[in-house]
Amino acid sequence: MAYVTVPKDLTKIKSKVMFNLTKRQLICFSAAVVIGLPLFFLVKGSVGTSAAALCMVLAMLPMFLLAMYEKNGQPLEVIIRQFVEVKFLRPKERPYQTNNFYAALARQEQLDKEVRAIVKGKEKHPKRKA
């Protein structure tokens, strides 16, 4: 008897639109065709069929990667953006800084002492009229 396995994690299931492809895959493959086919026919006359096919494949490869590659649920452009941020945009050394609760309490206590001293000092002198 034939049976179909049902995955336990249903969040990884993507809805298919046409030809058993997702909307993202259809858009990327369509863009690859729009880029690759005209390039093939333009280059075929000057360099030959094999070199034109190689140029077409190399031009279409980024779109295929954008359509198909996914790691940990993240598409390729997210992974590339994170890589660029880590390698080029963010500082190389990021020192670990803690928020010391005791130091915050000590600063607050010092401020409270200053406020009490100001209030106590005003009580000694009569209020001035402005």
From TrEMBL:
InterPro entries: Uncharacterised_PrgI (IPR024414). This is PrgI family protein. Pfam families: PrgI. Keywords: Membrane, Transmembrane, Transmembrane helix. The chain crosses the membrane at residues 26-43, 49-69. It comes from the Bacteria.
